[in-house]
Each structure stands twice: as structure tokens, then as C-alpha cells.
Amino acid sequence: MNASSLALPDYRQQRPEVAARFQRIKERPVVLRIEDLAKHFGSGPAARTVFDGVSLDIHRREFISIIGASGCGKSTLIRIVAGLEEASAGRILLDGKPVSGPGPDRGMVFQGYTLFPWRTVKENVMFGLEMGGMDRSTADAEARQWLEMVGLGKFAESYPHELSGGMKQRVAIARALANNPRILIMDEPFGALDALTRCKMQGYLLQIWRKVDVTILFITHDLDEACFLSDRIIVMGANPGRIIEVIENPVPRPRSVEQFLTPEFLALKQRLDDIIHAPGAAEAEEKLPVVKLTEAGDEVE
Amino acid sequence: MSSRDWLGLKHELPRRRQFMLVVLSFLLPLALWSAVSYVPWLWHPFVRVTAPGGVDYFIEGMDVPRAVFAKEKAAALQAGLVAPAGYPVNPVYLPAPHKVARAFFTAFKTPPRLPNEPWLHESLGHSIRTIFWGFVISSVFGIPLGILCGSYRFFSKLQEPFVEFFRYLPAPAFGALCVAILGIDDPPKIAIIVIGTLFQQVLVIGNTVRKVDPALIEAAQTLGARGWRLVRRVIIPATISDIYTDLRILLGWAWTYLIVAEVVGTSSGITFFINQQARYRNFDNVYAAIAMIGIIGFSTDMALAWLGQYLFPWKRRRRASALKSSVAEPSPSSAIPMSIG
Q: Cα separations (Å) of A217 from A3, A50, A184, A186, A188?
């Protein structure tokens, strides 16, 4: 397409250090295995397949993004992983053991902050710890540490409604991480934030991920976000939902905002763009039946 | 200051204006009442006779319709007799504001006509006791049932259809039954308030609890909460402030049932006082007593609303915007090496 004239490298081409990193990741144990997962709604002739035959191995401390057009079932997929919905076929293995139903071993951060409004910020972080049977004073100390880590120590006694969207989402991340989950599932966590805050949050998330032993499964529809954050990017297609391609991100770590314009980044983004916006992948933009209401010669494009 | 400042749709008014309007909402009806009472040419359908003059059936102090007075006056003048004198008055059932205001104090000081009848403060106390126990007993059953119905489909399907049916049975219809079972004193009155409140309470609280944000429940599940703990630690705290508001509204309804309940068996409480005063045609006392119910109800509600602010501090939104704008977004500390977990 038009970007090909810029002579971008192949997105599969990896620098030696990047290739070595992926080699190391693959040698790590598999934390989460998705085996031939399928989800159908309804039954009989009215049945609709959300996705089918989805298999994926996620290694320890890997950062995986799932990206795809709306309707590809990516949200349903991770809700099944989190145990909030049931699969029609296939199974989920966490550290080799099949799981069903939600549990603290799979932490989740939702797009709508879902902080408990009646609990202070610190009490929100303590929730999972209390559910795990930890006594209050230990949970209190632990929650404070997590809040310090996400930079909100000063807001421990505030209520969620007193925080901005980005701050709320950091509390939600701290709350999920406090449970020491094997995997942190994030469902478009920054989707509701403005562009500037989202950018900051991506930086924070990378900082946190570097410091904590956690594997991240991240859903987004923002190509830049996927390219900036992930190790591997799972591209899903719709009708029926399926994995189209698993891309190893060629952008070296540590990541920084400057990398947005590097050839690897652009090549990767171009590739994602090509898959997601491929003809037939989504409906073509409809021609709107708008009558011209401006004067002749008053063209904006 | 344009009119738009007052009448903007969904437009917050400054606190001073809000207060003015609140005062005005009470002053306007009072002004209307005063006008009808004190402006002689407004309504005043009767004439109080001060001197009978030549009309033989007029007695001093009697109220006659204006038209009758005018006719008799004309007749008396024509017959060469002394014209009757009088001034326009409203019917006895509409006393002027100052009389009702005075009754607020005198009603408490006036001893009852019969030695075994209660004083006004005793009547009021009796009513408040009845409503208190009725509401407490109803809530003891209604709140847990409502929470169960709102939380579990099982209880919702098991309870609500019957409750929905029972809700349509008017509580006063159970009056005779309650007296037969519980005697003629306070128990049947309390029972009627319970019958009138309980079934509404279950449905209203059930609905409130059902409205809890499902995302909060899912979040709690991914944090390891399940079963009854999910109800106790998430559903109840998430809805408790709304349940509190429901209870405030239901308490208002309970007052309606009180008036019915108090005529069941031996008449008692404020209703007894009102009926008794109406019988003696002390309508100023009747209005004062009715107004007292309003004042007690309204001030209880205000007090509960005020208390709610302290019970549910997360509902106080005023501090929010101030804090958000004054504090810059802090960043995660990169200095602390991670030692947790």
C-alpha cells in the first residue's frame, strides 16, 4: 500500500537481540494454555459461532496482546479465560491444570474501572487479600506497598470517585496484582481514557510489568498500543472469530515513545493495519445518502 | 442576571437561590392560605352576625350565607326595621393561619375534655411508637428478603410472585382480622403497618439490589469472592445507600398506613386526637395536628438524609472535583524495587 513506498523492512525480520529474547521466552514454562477453545451462542439453526478452534500458549512473564476488529470475539475469549463465561468446547489450562470459574489466580482489569465505590482506594486493593483469608493488618500493609508502586500512596484513604480515570485504573491494576495472579487479563483497560492519559498509562504499565512477576494478556483495538506494549500480538479475525496470525513484535525492549517512528514499529503497525483493515475483513465504509448542503466550490477535501 | 439563569434546563442553581426557592415553596401555599383568610373579598362565603337587628331568627355569632344575609338585610330595611350587622367569614373548617399557629401551642396545653383521654403529646408519642415498631418489624423481614430476592434468582422466583399478589391486598382490609387475632390495642395497628409496608419493601429493595452493577460482581469474582461472601461483601455494600433511600421513602408510606391503623380497634394516637377535635369543631387543632404529622415526617426524613451523609461517605461527591483539579497526576515510583509477592 502507500507505506510500501517508504521501503519498510519485513515485520518478521528481527534483530539478533529480539530473536534471542523470543528464544528465551519460549524456553520459559507455559503459564496459560488455551486448547481448541470454541464459543457458540444459542442452539439449533439459530446458533451463532463467536469463535472456534482457538489455541494459544502463553509463557511466563510474556506480554501478549490480542487485537482484532469488533465482533471477532476477543472480549468473549478473555472473559472465558477469566472464568466469567463458559466455553462451548475446549479448555483452559493454568500451569497445566484445567480451570473453570473465576478465581484470584487470573486477575482482571476491566475497561470500566469497577472499583468498589464504598471502599477507599486502599480498601479496594485489600479486597482480594481479605478474600484470600489474609488478616487485616497484613493486608493493610501489603495494600499500601502496592499503592506506593503504582504511585498512589498518597491517595490510600481517598474514595474512587475522587480520582481521575487514569488513577482509578492504576488502583484497579494494583488491586488485581495484589492477589499475585499467575496472569493479568486486561480488557481494553485504557479504552475509556483520553489519548494523553492513555499514553502515560501505557508507560506506567510497562514499568509495573518490569517489576512484577506477572504474565499479561492484554486486549486492545489500538494498533499503536499493541505494538508499543506486547511481545507477541495475536490478530483475530471475525465471522467466525479465529486467530489469523500470531506476530512476534520486532520492536526491541526496553520500549520508549521514541520507537513509534522506528522502521520495525512502522512495519509492524503496517502489517496489523493490513490484516485488520483488509478488504472483506470489515464492512466497507457505507456511502451515506447526504445531499450536498454547502455552496458550490466550498469543498473541504 | 437573565431569566435563563433561573430556568436553565438541568442547570445547577447557586446555593443561595436554591435556599430561596426552598423557602418559597413553603411560603407560596402559606401566602395563598393567608390571602383567602385575611382578604375579606376573597371567597368568605358566610357572614357572621354581630347584631341581629330586625331579623328575628338571626342570633349573634351565627354564620349565614352571604346571599341570605343580603336578602334579610334588604327585607328588614324595607320593613323599616334595624338592619342586621355582620362581617364576612370563611367556613369554620378553614381557620386562619394565625389560629392554626396558635393551636400549635395551645393544643399541647389544653387538657383533654375527659379525664381518661390522652393529651396531644401523648397521642403523638403513641403514634410514633406504633409506626416505629411497625416499621422495625417490617424491615427485620423485608430487608433481608429483599436482598435475597435481588441477589438470587432462586429467591426472586420463589418469593416475588406471591409478594406481588399480596401487595395488591389493601392493608386496611385486614383490620377486622388483625383485631380478631391480636386484640384491640396496639398489636393490630402495628400489624397493619407491617402488612402495608413489608410487601412493598421486599419488592422495592429486591429491585434496588438487582440494579447493582454486574461489573462490580465480576470484578469481585476475579478477586476471589464467591457465594455468600459476594452478597455480604459486594452486593450489600454496593446497594446499601440505595436501600437506605428506599427505606426513607417507605417510612413515608408507613405514615399513611398509620392513620388507617389507628382507627382499627380502639382509636388511638394522633388520629384519635384529630377525630376528637373535629367532633368538637376545633378545626384549628385539626389542622395543627395534621401539620404536625407533616413536620414529624419531613424532619425525620431530613434527619435521615443528613445521617446518610455520614453513614455513606463515598456518596459525598462535593469534594471530588476540587481534589481532582488541584492534584496533578502523580507517577508510579520507579525508585522502589519490587519486593512484594
A: 30, 19, 6, 6, 10
pLDDT for res B323 = 45
Tell if the CB–CB gap between A116 and B225 is shorter than 8 Å: no
> In CATH, what number does B105-314 get?
1.10.3720.10
Helix (H) or strand (E) holding B312: none
pLDDT in tens, A241-268: 889 889 999 888 888 888 888 888 999 9
Cβ neighbours of B228 in A, within 8 Å:
none
Instruction: Identify the pLDDT of residue A279.
Output: 62
CB contact, 8 Å: B11 with chain A?
A: no
- % pLDDT > 90, chain A: 57
The answer to whether position A121 is within a domain reads no
Instruction: For residue B266, give the DSSP letter.
Output: S
Q: By the CB < 8 Å criterion, does A142 face chain B?
A: yes
Answer whether B224 sits within 8 Å of A118, measured CB to CB: no
Question: Does A182 lie at the interface with B, CB-CB under 8 angstroms?
Answer: no
Q: How many domains does chain A have?
A: 1
Quickly count: other Cβ atoms within 10 Å of residue A82's Cβ.
Answer: 24
Query: What's the rounded Cα separation, in Å, for the pair A75 and A185?
Result: 11
Inter-chain touch B238–A112, beta carbons under 8 Å:
no
pLDDT in tens, A107-160: 999 988 899 999 999 999 999 999 999 999 999 999 999 999 999 999 999 999
Residue A159 within a domain: no
Shortest CA distance from B319: residue in chain A: A162
A211 touches chain B (CB under 8 A): yes
Domain of A98 in residue numbering reads as 2-105+181-276
Residue written as grid cell 486492545: A220
Interchain CB contact of B337 with A (< 8 Å)? yes
Res. B321 pLDDT band, cuts 50 70 90: very low
First to last CA, chain A: 21
pLDDT at A294: 76
A84 touches chain B (CB under 8 A): yes
Residues A164-212: tens digit of each pLDDT? 999 999 999 999 999 999 999 999 999 889 999 999 999 999 999 998 9
Other beta carbons within 10 angstroms of residue A236's beta carbon come to 23
Residues of chain B with CATH 1.10.3720.10: 105-314
CA nearest neighbour of B50 among B37, B63, B68: B63
Q: Answer for the pair A272, A225: CB distance below 8 angstroms, yes or no.
A: no
| Closest CA–CA distance from residue A278 to any residue of chain B (Å) | 34
For A142, the closest chain B residue by CA position comes to B340
Residues from chain A contacting residue B324 (CB–CB below 8 Å): 162-164
- Does B218 contact A102 at a Cβ distance shorter than 8 Å? yes
Residue A55 falls inside a structural domain: yes
> Do the domain assignments include residue A87?
yes
How many angstroms separate the CA of residue A34 from the nearest CA in chain B? 18
Average pLDDT, chain B: 87
